Amino acid sequence: MKLILKETIGSLGFQGDVVTVKPGYGRNYLLPQGKAVAANEKNLSELEENRATFEAKRAEEQKIAEALASKIEGLEVIIEQLAGIDERLFGSVTANDICAKLEELEVKVEKHQILLNDPLKTLGLTKVTVKVGFNVNAEIMVNVVPLQVN
Prior knowledge:
The protein has helices spanning 23-30, 41-49, 51-72, 95-104; strands spanning 2-5, 18-20, 36-38, 76-81, 88-93, 114-115, 120-122, 124-133, 136-146.
């Protein structure tokens, strides 16, 4: 099924791209959510008329994503958690925790942009990837340290 994307979707492409998807995905998700329209002659001609607008918007989004990536690349985030003697955490560090710490550092990202396979359950440094834009990633260091209880 050929569709024209009305917004950028991370796994498919940019706004204005013509993509081929499985019929069920297009019919049950993309079309009802308003994320895409059918790639018929009328919609393709409208796409060609608006191509310059889409390209300018894409370039602006790419520039913003690259600026954010350069700002946070190599950044070290320190998170304090309760830990036992064997350096295992009582709980874990999740994408929400990392997102909250980045917000304290005035870096605005959403938790789904933090690519963390599993929550962190041990002390120490861990390299975490942050997806700041379509095909733009940055790596930060998350340092989990024991919480000092008085």
